[in-house]
């Protein structure tokens, strides 16, 4: 059995129910909106975040309608943030597919993102849970805060790992943590169980983002972005930060400053990437990712063994071992 099948096995029926609710949430009589949504749905992918919601809910109880609405709400909020991020970053592609702003325009992309965000809040309300509504609202704040923090850090000439982790906790880990905590809340888990779930999601999210950042150092059409794309946007991620803080190579540091200023040439970025790879940056990032993986596995080890725990361990392994 492949890893995705193993992950989905305990929640096959629940996942089908999620898909139906998610599809119905995006149906519209507006022809333009329907065209944009149809384009977005082409990259539905493996639905890893909704799967995480359903699995964590199953840790504590059976999946309920509130669980499904929470999963839809969070996936819509995530999708809205991606549509808006592509406008902010002036990106023309996401995961190998043309972005909404590239096919339509920025106005359509922003308004579609707003529609998805509003629909997310509608589904949050349908959970009938004030803690989940608050969780979704706070997540919206965190995602925007993380994006602004990242933008402000681009012009900062320091190479801070702590700022990097602040950004990924708000931009990525917060989303996974919201998925796992909302799942627990949707089945009336107690406060201690909800915090356990939140922490598990945070560790998974950190692993997910570090893995994504490692991808930027390798060229692959499957990943859907060229090597050095983050640097072209002025972003220095964990592999680069480690090397820059542990080298006396003035040339590398000068290129890194140019990356942050947006003046580095593609050739300079290629040289910096090669230097980072030669200097152990990728190995350091993998080591750091594996530390968070072990923390997540430690949490799961404290639970009674079950098919759901097996699926969650497979989920974690997939996040760390995936190739795109």
TrEMBL record:
Annotated Pfam families: polyprenyl_synt (PF00348)
One GO BP annotation of this record: isoprenoid biosynthetic process
Protein family membership: Belongs to the FPP/GGPP synthase family.
UniProt keyword list: Magnesium, Metal-binding, Transferase
Organism per entry: Bacteroides finegoldii
Superkingdom, taxonomy of origin: Bacteria
InterPro entries xref list: Isoprenoid_synthase_dom_sf, Polyprenyl_synt, Polyprenyl_synt_CS
Lineage, top ranks: Bacteria, Pseudomonadati, Bacteroidota, Bacteroidia, Bacteroidales
GO molecular function: metal ion binding; prenyltransferase activity
Cofactor annotation: Mg(2+)
Protein name, UniProt field: Polyprenyl synthetase family protein
């Amino acid at each position: 059995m492949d890893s995705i099948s193993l992950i989905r096995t305990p929640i096959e029926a629940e996942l089908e129910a999620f898909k139906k609710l998610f599809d119905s949430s995006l149906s519209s009589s507006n022809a333009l909106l329907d065209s944009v949504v149809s384009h977005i749905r082409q990259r539905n992918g493996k639905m890893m975040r909704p799967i995480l919601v359903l699995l964590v809910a199953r840790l504590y109880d059976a999946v309920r309608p509130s669980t499904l609405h929470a999963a839809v709400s969070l996936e819509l909020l995530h999708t809205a943030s991606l549509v808006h991020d592509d406008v902010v970053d002036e990106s023309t592609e996401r995961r190998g597919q043309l972005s909404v702003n590239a096919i339509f325009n920025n106005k359509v992309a922003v308004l579609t993102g707003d529609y998805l965000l509003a629909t997310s809040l509608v589904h949050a309300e349908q959970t009938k849970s004030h803690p989940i509504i608050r969780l979704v609202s706070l997540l919206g704040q965190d995602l925007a805060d993380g994006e602004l923090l990242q933008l402000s850090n681009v012009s900062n000439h320091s190479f801070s790992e702590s700022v990097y982790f602040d950004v990924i906790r708000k931009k990525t880990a917060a989303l996974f943590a919201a998925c796992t905590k909302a799942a627990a809340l949707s089945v009336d888990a107690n406060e201690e169980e909800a915090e356990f779930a939140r922490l598990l999601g945070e560790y998974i999210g950190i692993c997910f983002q570090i893995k994504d950042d490692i991808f930027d150092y390798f060229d692959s059409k499957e990943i859907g972005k060229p090597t050095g794309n983050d640097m072209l946007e002025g972003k220095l991620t964990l592999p680069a930060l480690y090397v820059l803080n542990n080298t006396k190579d003035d040339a590398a540091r000068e290129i890194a400053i140019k990356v942050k200023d947006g003046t580095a040439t593609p050739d300079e970025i290629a040289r910096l990437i090669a230097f980072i790879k030669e200097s152990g940056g990728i190995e350091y990032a993998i080591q750091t990712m594996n530390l968070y993986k072990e923390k997540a596995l430690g949490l799961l080890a404290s639970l009674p063994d079950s098919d759901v725990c097996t699926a969650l361990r497979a989920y974690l392994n997939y996040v760390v071992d995936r190739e795109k």
